[in-house]
Design goal:
The complex is a heterotrimer of chains A (340), B (330) and C (324). Chain A has 340 residues and is of the alpha/beta class. In chain A, helix 4 packs parallel to helix 7 and helix 5 packs across helix 7. Chain B is globular and about 70 Å long. Chain C contains 14 helices and no strands. Chain C has 324 residues and is mostly helical. Classes of the chains: A alpha/beta (340), B alpha/beta (330), C mainly alpha (324). At the A-C interface, helix 2 and helix 4 of A face helix 9 and helix 10 of C.
Chain lengths: 340, 330, 324
C-alpha cells in the first residue's frame, strides 16, 4: 500500500437515465480507487456500464435525463455536480480521455496541430508557435514518424493507427495525472493494437500517468494492466491484481469470460465454455445478482439481493463461499475437454 | 482432422482477381487501379473449414464475395463442383445459390428491418421451392429451432432481437436450403465475447449436423483457430501463407504471419510471451503497392531480391504454402 | 489542384455553350411560329419582319443563325430590341447588373449574418423557449411571400407612415447609383434588403440549426469537450465550423440564382431596374432579344456561382481537397 492518497476515489457511483420504458440503470453503485501511476483495466461487455463509468468521471454525461449520484474524488476534489467551469479546468489538464473510434474522434476541418495546440493553449499560457512545437514533440513521443508533416495534416489523411496515436498525443499534451481510455484499440488492426498497447504501457514511465483502460478483451488487460475490475450489469463483480485474477478468477462470470475466449495456442477445446443466455436489459435488471439468470451455480440467495464484494485484495461479488469458488475454478479449468 | 475424401474440391479459384478503378479522370492512363484481390488461387475441399485472416484492406471480404459470385470477378477462374462460374450471369447462377450461401458481419444491416423474421426466412423457400404456406411455416419453425431460437420468434421484427439473436437468424437464412458451402464474412466480430462463443459453437454444431463446408473470414486469429481446419493469411490482396491451422499459427513460416501471431494479446499471465515481431512503417496504399514482394517495406528480414521479385506461393511440406523468398524456420 | 481548377473552368465554358445553344434553339427552332415575328414583337409590320429575317439570317442554316446571334450579343453588341425601338439590349442589361448586384449583395450580407446568428443561438439553446421562438419566426419568414412583404413595406414606408420620423428618410421607389450618392444608395436599398433577406434568414437559420444539432452529436465534439476548452469554443470552433459546409453550398447556389435575375419580385415591387425587372418586362412584351440576353446572362451567373461554390467547398472542407 503506498503511503500516498489514491489519485481517484469513486464511491457508490450510479448513473441512471429516465427513459420511456422507465429507469435505465447503466451503473448501479460502483466503488473503486486508482493510485498514481497505476494501470487499471476494466473489463466488461456491452451494457456492462463500463463506458458510462468513464463518462461520469469526465463529466461528459450531458443528457438531461441522466441522474449521476455518488462521489468521485479526484486529488481530493469532488467531481460529481461540479460546475462547468471548474470541470473544464480539470478536463484535458489533469484527466484526459481517449475514445474508441479514432476515425471519428478528431474534428475533420482542423489540422492535428491545431487541435493539439488548442488543448495546450486552453490550459497553459502558450503562444501559437510554442503550442505547435509542443504538438510536434508529442507526436514524436507517441511514435509517429514525420511528426513535422503530421502536425499540419488533416485527420482524414492519416491511417487509423496514426490517428489513435495523435489522439493519445493530444490527451497527453498537458501531462495529465490520469488518462482514461474507452476501448482505445478495439477499432484497430491487431498489429497496430499491439503498438498502441505498448505505448499505453509506457505512459506510466514516460509521462507519469495513471491509466483506466476499459476493454472487452481480457488479452488487452493481460498485456498492460496492473489491476483488473470485471463489470457486469452495471456493477463490479470481481476485482484484484492482474496475476491473482488471471491465475484464479473467483466469479462465475469471469470464468465464463475466460471460457469464451478460444486459445491461440495449446490444446483446443471441442466446444467453447460459453455462457448461456444474453446480457441483461438495463431497464429490466434482475432483482438479485445481475448475473444470476445465466449462472450455473445460482441458488435462492442470488435472486433476492445483489451480493456484496467479499474478500481482501482479490474480491468477488458472489454469494458462494470463496473456498468453494476456488475449488470450482480449479475443477473447470482442469476439466475442459481437450482436442488435439 | 476428418479424412479428406479424394475427389475434386468443392470450390476452386485460380488466379482470381478483382480490380477497382479509382479516379475521375476521363483519361484511362490517369485512373488508378486497386487490386483488391490479386491473383488468388485456392481450393476448398468438402467438409473442411478454411479460415481467411488478415487485417483491414487485405481483401478478405472482397475475396469472400467473389467466391460466391456476389460480385463479378475481373479475371481468373472459379469453379464450383467442377462447373465454371467465373463468367456466369446472375441468372445462370441462380440455381447455384442453393448450394453456396453467405453470412454477413453486421446482423443489423443484413436483415430487412421492415419484414418479419418469419417472412425473411421463408424467402429462400419461396424463391427456390414453391411450397404450400403451411409447409413453409413448418420449415421456418424448424430452422429457428436449429439455431436455438423459438418458433414464436418468426412473428417478430429484427429490431426486437439482440445482436447475437440476429446473427442466428442470419445463419438460419443461410441454412434454409441446405447449402453445401457457407462463406461467413466476419460473422462474430460485431458481437460480445460471450455471445461470440455461443455463435462459434453453433457454427461448429451445424457443420457436423449438415455436413457443411465453411469459408470463415475474420481478423481475430483466436476465433479462426478455433473453428478452422486450414487457414490462409492475406496481405494486400494476396495469400502469403496457407496450411493446417495449428501448424501455421504454432510455427509461422511467413514473417507477416509471425508478426500477426505475435501481436495477439493473450489472456494469460503464465505463458512466456512469444517474441513480438515489430513491423516497421505503415500499411502501403492498395493503389500503390510496393514492387516485388508486397510485404518488403515492412518486413524485418527483407533483402534486395524481395524488392525486385515477387515470390509465388510454394509448398514447404505438410500441406503448407508460403510466398516468401526467405521463409522462417526453414 | 490546378489541374482540377482548369478542368472545372473548361466544364464551365462547355456548359455555357450548351445553355446558349438551348436558349437559341428554344427561340429560333421551335416549330410553329415564325421566329421573325417573335423577335420583332407584337404587331410588327411586314417591312420590320423582312428586315428581321435579313438581319438574323433566318433563311440561312441554323448554325449560321446561331453564330450571327452570338456575334450580335457578345462581339458587336449591337443587338437591338424591336419592341423598344432602337434600345440596345446589351448595354441595357449591363446597366441593370449593378442594380441587381447591389440588391442581392446587400441582402446577402444581412441574411448570412442573420442566418448565422439565428442558427447558432437556436442550436445552442435547443429545446428552450428561445429556440422555439426563433424557429417560429423563421418559419414565418420563410412563408411570407416576398412581394407581399415588399408591398406592405412600401405601404408603410412610402405612404402610411412616411411622414413620421420613422420613415421620412426613405426615398421614393427606385435605384440611386452608389457612385452618385452613396448615402442615398444605402437609403434606397435598406428596405429592399431587409425584405429580400427575411425569407433567407428564416431558411438558413433553420438549415444551420439542423446541421449544427446533428454535428454536435458527433464523436469529435465529445473529444473537444473532453479537452476542457469550454462549451462556447466547442460550439463555434468545432461544431459551427464543420456545419458551414452545407451553409456555404446553399449560399453559393442561392446567391448565383438571385444575381442571375431571381430577385425579380423584389425588384419589381421596389422599382429597381435590375436584371430581374428587365426580364419581367421583356416577358410581358415578348421582347425576344432582351429575353435571350437575360437568359444567357442568368445562366452564366448560375454556372459561375456553382464554380465558386466548388472552390469554396474545397477551402472549407479539407476532405474535399484530396478527392481528385
Amino acid at each position: 500500500m503506498s503511503a500516498e492518497a489514491p489519485l481517484l476515489v469513486v464511491k457508490d457511483l450510479s448513473v441512471s437515465f429516465c427513459g420511456d420504458e422507465g429507469l435505465v440503470r447503466a451503473v448501479g453503485g460502483v466503488s473503486f480507487s486508482v493510485e498514481r501511476r497505476e494501470i487499471v483495466g476494466v473489463v466488461g461487455e456491452s451494457g456492462s456500464g463500463k463506458s458510462q463509468t468513464l463518462l461520469a468521471i469526465m463529466g461528459l454525461i450531458n443528457s438531461p435525463n441522466a441522474i449521476v449520484s455518488g462521489s468521485i474524488r479526484f486529488m481530493g476534489q469532488e467531481l460529481v455536480g461540479l460546475n462547468r467551469r471548474a470541470l473544464d479546468a480539470i478536463r484535458g489538464r489533469q484527466i484526459a480521455m481517449i475514445f474508441q473510434d479514432p476515425m471519428s474522434a478528431l474534428t475533420p476541418v482542423h489540422t492535428i496541430g491545431n487541435q493539439i495546440g488548442e488543448q495546450v493553449r486552453a490550459h497553459e499560457k502558450a503562444s501559437a508557435r510554442a503550442a505547435r512545437a509542443r504538438a510536434v514533440q508529442l507526436l514524436d513521443a507517441v511514435g509517429i514518424a514525420n511528426p513535422g508533416r503530421v502536425v499540419d495534416a488533416y485527420p482524414h489523411q492519416l491511417s487509423g493507427g496514426m490517428r489513435q496515436r495523435a489522439v493519445i498525443a493530444m490527451a497527453l499534451s498537458c501531462n495529465p495525472a490520469l488518462l482514461v481510455a474507452d476501448e482505445p484499440t478495439t477499432a484497430l488492426d491487431v498489429t497496430v493494437q499491439a503498438q498502441i498497447l505498448d505505448l499505453i504501457g509506457r505512459l506510466r514511465d514516460e509521462f507519469g500517468s495513471a491509466v483506466i483502460l476499459v476493454t472487452h478483451d481480457l488479452g488487452v488487460v493481460a498485456e498492460v494492466a496492473d489491476r483488473v475490475l470485471v463489470m457486469y450489469g452495471g456493477r463490479f463483480v470481481e476485482e484484484g491484481g492482474k496475476t491473482s485474477v488471471f491465475r484464479a478468477p473467483l466469479h462465475p462470470y469471469t470464468w465464463g469470460l475466460f471460457g469464451s475466449i478460444p486459445p491461440i495456442d495449446g490444446a483446443r477445446p471441442a466446444r467453447l465454455a460459453a455462457i448461456p443466455g444474453a446480457p441483461p436489459s438495463l431497464s429490466n435488471l434482475p432483482k438479485g445478482c445481475a448475473f444470476g439468470p445465466r449462472c450455473a451455480y445460482r441458488h435462492e440467495a442470488c435472486l433476492t439481493l445483489p451480493p456484496p464484494m467479499e474478500g481482501n485484495e482479490h474480491r468477488a461479488a458472489c454469494v458462494l463461499p470463496e473456498a468453494r469458488r476456488r475449488e470450482i475454478n480449479i475443477r473447470t479449468t482442469a476439466g475442459v475437454e481437450m482436442r488435439s | 482432422m476428418s479424412a479428406r475424401p479424394v475427389e475434386r474440391p468443392l470450390l476452386r479459384a485460380g488466379d482470381l482477381s478483382k480490380r477497382y478503378s479509382v479516379g475521375r479522370s476521363i483519361f484511362p492512363a490517369q485512373r488508378r487501379t486497386v487490386h483488391a484481390v490479386d491473383a488468388v488461387s485456392l481450393d476448398i475441399w468438402p467438409g473442411e473449414t478454411l479460415g481467411i485472416v488478415g487485417e483491414s484492406g487485405c481483401g478478405k471480404s472482397t475475396l469472400g464475395r467473389c467466391l460466391v459470385r456476389l460480385t463479378d470477378i475481373s479475371s481468373g477462374s472459379l469453379e464450383f463442383e467442377g462447373r465454371d462460374i467465373a463468367d456466369a450471369s446472375q441468372r445462370a447462377l441462380r440455381p447455384l445459390r442453393r448450394q453456396m450461401q453467405m453470412v454477413f458481419q453486421d446482423p443489423s444491416a443484413s436483415l430487412n428491418p421492415r419484414r418479419r423474421v418469419g417472412d425473411l426466412l421463408a424467402d429462400p423457400f419461396r424463391i427456390h421451392e414453391r411450397l404450400p404456406a403451411s409447409e413453409m411455416a413448418d420449415r421456418v419453425a424448424e430452422l429457428l429451432r436449429r439455431v436455438e431460437l423459438s418458433p414464436e420468434h418468426a412473428a417478430r421484427y429484427p429490431h426486437e432481437f439482440s445482436g447475437g439473436q440476429r446473427q442466428r437468424i442470419g445463419i438460419a437464412r443461410a441454412l434454409a436450403l441446405r447449402p453445401k458451402l457457407i462463406v461467413a464474412d466476419e460473422p462474430v466480430s460485431a458481437l460480445d465475447v460471450s455471445i461470440q462463443a455461443q455463435i462459434v459453437n453453433l457454427l461448429a454444431d451445424l457443420r457436423e449436423e449438415f455436413n457443411l463446408t465453411y469459408v470463415f473470414i475474420a481478423h481475430d486469429l483466436s476465433v479462426v483457430r478455433q473453428i478452422s481446419t486450414r487457414v490462409a493469411v492475406m496481405y494486400l490482396g494476396s495469400i502469403v501463407e496457407s496450411g493446417p491451422t495449428d501448424l501455421v499459427f504454432a510455427a509461422p513460416r511467413h514473417p507477416y504471419t509471425a508478426a500477426l501471431r505475435s501481436a495477439v494479446p493473450e489472456p494469460s499471465v503464465e505463458r512466456a510471451r512469444c517474441p513480438r515481431v515489430v513491423l516497421k512503417g505503415e500499411l502501403p496504399s492498395p493503389m500503390d503497392p510496393p514492387s516485388g514482394c508486397r510485404f518488403h517495406t515492412r518486413c524485418p528480414a527483407a533483402t534486395s531480391i524481395c524488392r525486385s521479385e515477387r515470390p509465388l506461393l510454394a509448398s514447404v511440406g505438410e500441406g503448407r504454402l508460403v510466398a516468401c523468398h526467405h521463409p522462417l524456420g526453414g | 489542384m490546378l489541374a482540377a481548377l482548369g478542368f472545372r473552368l473548361g466544364q464551365m465554358v462547355l456548359v455555357m455553350f450548351g445553355i446558349s445553344v438551348v436558349a437559341f434553339l428554344i427561340f429560333f427552332a421551335t416549330p410553329g411560329a415564325d421566329p421573325s415575328a417573335r423577335i420583332a414583337g407584337r404587331n410588327a409590320s411586314q417591312e420590320t419582319l423582312a428586315q428581321v429575317r435579313h438581319d438574323f439570317g433566318l433563311d440561312r442554316p441554323l448554325p449560321v443563325q446561331y453564330g450571327l446571334m452570338m456575334d450580335r450579343l457578345f462581339v458587336s453588341r449591337d443587338l437591338t430590341s424591336f419592341v423598344n425601338r432602337g434600345q440596345l439590349v446589351v448595354p441595357t442589361v449591363a446597366s441593370a447588373i449593378p442594380v441587381t448586384l447591389s440588391l442581392v449583395g446587400g441582402a446577402a450580407v444581412l441574411w448570412v449574418l442573420g442566418g448565422l446568428v439565428v442558427g447558432v443561438i437556436a442550436g445552442a439553446t435547443r429545446g428552450t423557449f428561445i429556440d422555439r421562438a426563433l424557429m417560429i419566426l423563421s418559419l414565418v419568414g420563410v412563408s411570407v411571400p416576398v412581394f407581399w412583404l415588399g408591398e406592405v413595406a412600401n405601404l408603410l414606408t412610402q405612404s402610411r407612415w412616411h411622414d413620421t420620423w420613422l420613415f421620412s428618410w426613405v426615398p421614393p421607389l427606385g435605384y440611386i447609383a452608389l457612385t452618385e450618392d452613396p448615402w442615398g444608395w444605402f437609403k434606397a436599398l435598406i428596405i429592399p434588403w431587409i425584405t429580400l433577406a427575411t425569407l433567407y434568414v428564416g431558411l438558413y437559420g433553420r438549415v444551420l440549426r439542423a446541421s449544427l444539432i446533428e454535428m454536435m452529436q458527433e464523436d469529435f465534439i465529445r473529444t473537444a469537450r473532453a479537452k476542457g476548452i469550454g462549451e462556447r469554443r466547442v460550439l463555434l470552433h468545432h461544431g459551427l465550423r464543420t456545419s458551414l459546409v452545407a451553409f456555404v453550398t446553399m449560399f453559393g447556389l442561392d446567391f448565383g440564382a438571385l444575381v442571375g435575375g431571381g430577385a425579380l419580385l423584389t425588384e419589381v415591387v421596389f422599382g429597381l431596374q435590375g436584371v430581374g425587372k428587365l426580364t419581367y418586362e421583356a416577358l410581358q412584351t415578348l421582347d425576344l432579344p432582351m429575353i435571350l440576353a437575360t437568359v444567357i446572362y442568368a445562366a452564366f451567373f448560375v454556372v459561375l456561382a456553382n464554380f465558386v461554390v466548388d472552390i469554396a467547398f474545397a477551402i472549407i472542407d479539407p476532405r474535399a481537397r484530396d478527392v481528385r
